[in-house]
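Let us work through a complete example step by step.
Step 1: write down the sequence.
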Amino acid sequence: MGLRQVWRFNSFRRTNVILQHLGMSKHTDAAGEVLLERRGCAGVITLNRPKFLNALNLNMIRHIYPQLKNWEQDPETFLIIIKGAGGKAFCAGGDIRDCCRKPYVALIHGITMGGGVGLSVHGQFRVATEKSLFAMPETAIGLFPDVGGGYFLPRLQGKLGYFLALTGFRLKGRDVYAAGIATHFVDSEKLDMLEEDLLALKSPSKENIADVLDAYHTKSKIDQDKSFILEEHMDKINSWFSANTVEQIIENLQQDGSSFALEQLKVINKMSPTSLKITVRQLMEGSSKTLQEVLTMEYRLSQACVGGHDFHEGVRAVLIDKDQSPKWKPADLKEVTDEDLNNYFKPLGSNDLKF
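Step 2: predict the structure and record it as tokens.
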């Protein structure tokens, strides 16, 4: 097993622990759990575990990854479409991090968290619907927004990515588009027609694909005049979360004293202090790194978190015992030292991620 495979295995081992405690069985055969079809001009990936919110497991990735590579080499395959079965979720867990070189259209209809973010947000085209639900809730379980979050979150408007990463704030429907996470918004009842129109394209270029998506986006009427849910707060979010430390962010929220600020403060104070500090540094460093450099950094972080206390305690409190009362160690931000933080980010030598 190569280093990339070891890394994927460790990441999915963590995911499977979570899925098992959600009542989601760990399958040993991906047959039927992911559907891979060549239709029209496209390769179509359907995540087919609707009862489990289409959460990914390692065996599904072992089916998807080689097929993606085959389609990349196939001159008759001009784009990749990925979607979730069942209508409730695109993908709510798991993790895949290899990028596809061909135009990649993710239909992020329904719940999009964890691996669902990794499968979609790095693609060129991301289509949200009124039923989309996006969140990065990892700091609540002693983790960090790992699916390349260190790359895409700091590149959202202003300090929105920092806000989403630290609070786990949920975006719904057209707000997923307004935030810049989706590139297009389409009414869910039009998704099947959109897919058929994409499949019917003849040797399409990226521009041809964009034209189809743009046309559906323009015709979408649901919540068309709705303002972004965070629009009235964005100036303050940009100010509060421009601080270089978690402590200063918290001080900014306390000094503001508005109901919205105090609500976010209450949420942040429940999160793992270690995860909060990791996440701020992850996004600050990731803002100037390439995606590959970010993934290398996040691999180091994932290894340290899996071997630490807070991730296991977060899973226990949120997913196993469900008492929602994790006992973080350290329990206070001031107890998380720079030396502690540096240990999470330190290179792993010969065990570092290699592409």
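Step 3: interpret the result. The CA atoms of residues 140 and 270 lie 7 Å apart.
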